[in-house]
Amino acid sequence: MMRFSAMGDVAMASAAVKVALESGQDPEIDLLSKPYYEPLFEKRSGFSFIKPDLKGKHRGILGLYRLYRELRKNGYSAVIDLHGSLRSLVLGFFFKMGGTPVFTIDKGRAEKRELIRQGAQNSRALKHSTDRYAEVFEKVGIKVKLKRDSLPVLGENTERIETLLSTKNTQKWIGIAPFSTHTPKEWKLDRIIKLSEEIRKEDCRILWFGGGKRELDIIENQLIKQGNDILVAGQFKLGEELTLMRRIDAMISMDSANMHMAAISGIPVVSIWGPTHPKAGFSPLFNERGVVQTEMECRPCTIYGKLKSRADKICSEKSMEAVSVDMVLEKLRECLG
């Protein structure tokens, strides 16, 4: 059994799970995570997705113990913790006390703190998150070696997605995901607007990705060009979005969950980086060449996007300001060939 949380991390783990299932050792994997994330995993033999009720009967310590009692009936030979959060560690403790071996990811927290202290210019690149997932699988005897052709094929084909895709002609379809859970990782709106104007001039159609009321309001009121662009945010289920991602020509995104979902969908990804840094191990899988950034001594000032000081805020603003529209357009053209 495996357990997991955080959308970008779950997206990256999806590829590792697929390779584990195809390792030739015929493992049976039950993956425990939030119900919303289920479309991020292929439906296949040997795999089950378990949805805990974390806001109801599985809430808190007593709820996690109740969840443990339900899960132990499945007779797992091992538990893999790919998240290493307080909640997953508590659940792992219950399994250990019950005699089930538990293998937990090494998230390299000390290395990441050192990366911030020394700066990326003076540091080596840390292990990619997918390599850390592979290490945990290897502890239970399952070899996981990720390749571009081992990416999962995700998505849900529906009539409205097929209807939309039927309108695709010779135009390039470019996705833009201008948001992040942590707003310091977002480019300024005037840059996004200018970028979208330049992309339209090159006979491309823009698809706007996002989620939540704030992001939808910004897209509808400030970014989208009615009659030409396609609004994806808030219009489709996650499975439908994943189907759409596999069929567009490229994605432009911040360091965000949409970046990781686009990467595992096998399309070119142009990613914009400021306060965070791909050397921390979160670069879009097989899309390192699409990274857009300006190296600065202060970077990274955060690993995930949370700022702790005024100096972090200044670094965040300067590093995002240093990424120009022309830099992003150049990368996009490179990725499109």
Q: Overview of this structure, please?
A:
This protein is α/β, with parallel strands linked by helices. It folds into two domains: 2-150, Rossmann fold, CATH 3.40.50; 160-336, Rossmann fold, CATH 3.40.50. The chain is 39% helix and 12% strand. The protein has twelve helices and eleven strands. It has helices at 7-21, 60-71, 86-97, 109-118, 129-139, 159-165, 189-201, 213-223, 238-247, 257-264, 310-321, 325-336, and strands at 2-3, 29-32, 47-50, 79-81, 102-104, 172-177, 204-208, 230-231, 250-254, 269-272, 291-292. The strands form two sheets. A six-stranded parallel sheet has the order 8-7-6-9-10-11, sandwiched between helices. α8 (213-223) links the parallel β7 and β8 (230-231). α1 (7-21) packs across α5 and α2 packs across α3. The radius of gyration is 21 Å and the shape is globular. It starts with a strand and ends with a helix. The model has no long low-confidence stretch (mean pLDDT 95).
Structure in a nutshell:
The chain is 39% helix and 12% strand.
**Range of strand content:** 5-15%
> Given the C-alpha coordinates, what overall shape results?
globular
Query: For the record, what is the CATH homologous superfamily label of the largest domain?
Result: Glycogen Phosphorylase B
SS-based class = alpha/beta
**What is the H-and-E element order?**
EHEEHEHEHHHEHEHEHEHEEHH
Number of helices: 12
**Number of domains as seen in the coordinates:** 2
**Cα distance, first to last residue?**
42 Å
Largest sheet features: 6 strands, parallel
Number of strands: 11
- According to CATH, the fold-level topology of the largest domain is Rossmann fold
Strand order of the largest sheet: 8-7-6-9-10-11
Assign the CATH class of the largest domain: Alpha Beta
Question: How would you state the average pLDDT, rounded?
Answer: 95
Rg = 21 Å
User: Which percent range fits the helix content?
Assistant: 25-40%
What's the CATH architecture of the largest domain?
A: 3-Layer(aba) Sandwich
